[in-house]
# Entry
Amino acid sequence: MTPPEIAARRQAGSAPNGSGWRMRVIPNKFPALRVEGNLNRTGVGIYDMMNGIGAHEVIIETPDHHKALADFQPPEMEELLEVYRERSLDLRKDQRFRYLLIFKNFGESAGASLAHPHSQLIALPVVPKRVTEELTRSEEYFERKDRCVFCDLIRQETEEKGRIVLESEGMLAFAPFVSRFPFEMWVIPKEHSGDFVASPPELLSDLAKTLPQLLGKMRRVLHNPSYNFILHTSPLEAAPWAGYHWHLEIMPRLTRVAGFEWGSGFYINPTPPELAASFLRGD
# Structure
């Protein structure tokens, strides 16, 4: 009942769009953006308009309806990360696209409309406002100090240790000092890298070991909460962003964003990140 697959990891000899797949990528049946057409940017007075051009893909992570990412073995998780990378490389060929957003909604309160394990990739014709703000602030910091703000953040978190949830050879996972949500976690490569797609295989292998562990800790401590994770990476531009550093943000949905947050831009977080990290570590 799914649309024809765009890509798949499947058993040798199995036919496309048939059984025998381990992971498969399909177009979203109800896409936010569509590949067909032209942008047709126009101005309407002070407003800007364009057609909803882009791509919206669903990555079906496993044939097992009840298998969560927290249950993935490192080779399975590494294969999923490779699919993210391969689809990103393929979509970069379309010159209309400016940014690729990879994310996962798990659970109804996190926005998941389907229970089967999946994540999503949306190719956008513009760089989103929040991404632009993060890029701009990172570049400003780099211009002032000739250092990456995320690299400085890694050094500080490594020295202070209190907010670290998990550390491996290549990755650092921590509850950020400015956590917007209780038990929010960031996962970031220790070596400077602005683009997820450019990550070497050994780093993806490291992330493949780290991510299921983190999700397993979160499931155990928080009793299987709904959550979102979002991959933050550089836009699709020829010149690299010297001051930017790709990372993954994981946000369990334990509280609701209400009027104060929407009206002020401030977030109320009742759980200090040091306490959240301690619980997640199992101290």
Q: What stands out?
A: The first helix runs from residue 74 to 91. DSSP finds six helices and twelve strands in the chain. The chain has a mean pLDDT of 94. The two ends are 46 Å apart (CA to CA).
